[in-house]
Structure of Class I SAM-dependent methyltransferase:
Amino acid sequence: MTRPVGTATRGTTNPNRLRRMDRWIAAVHGPALRRCDRPTAVDLGYGAAPWTTLELLRRLRTADPRCEVVGIEIDPARVSAAKPYEREGLSFRHGGFEIPIEPAPALIRAANVLRQYEEGDVASVWARLCGRLAPGGLLVEGTCDEIGRRHVWVALGPGGPRTVTFAARLGSLARPSDLAERLPKALIHRNVPGEPIHAFLRDFDRAWATAAPYASLSARQRWITAVRALGTDWPLSDDSRRWRQGEVTVEWEALAPRSG
């Protein structure tokens, strides 16, 4: 066997940490999973405990009861610790960015994996992972806080990045730019004047401030109002059904880092 590609993460994990990402995947990617002959998902770098992998299986099966999930970890001790949790449709395997499974997966989820890498490494890792996807497959790569209140992820297909999604527990959000600390590695160092992500978060904060009167109705109504205003200047790819969940998804090209 060849050595797995990548390095071990810190392993931090908590139950329900990735619920916002999973909920979005099941809703948005569910139709593509249902079109697969064998819908298989990979939870890449699940950490020291397999809780989020078990949860991914349960949530994907709300979209398609045939879904199978493979947890992949570069640390063999973590794989051994997860083996007792295996059951029908759920398995754990030693590996890394090479994704050592067949057939190719319809989904790869890589949450809180790339934060320890350099920004310059991201494009090659994305390309490697996207190259392992089945036709029509999806890579979801992003970062969240320790208990899943704030989360930002990039969705990619075999052709590269498509969208960026921002998701939050609205009751704990002072302003949208609080999500900046959870930007994926491809964007977190670009949150500076002159970069699109900085302009987006600036405009989002302004729309949030203008929508302040709606806070008397609920944080959700304030978010929806702010996002609707934001959509006049930024290409959003979702609608109020997702906004009500405390999410907003933006086309990648609008937020992609400037060269240099």
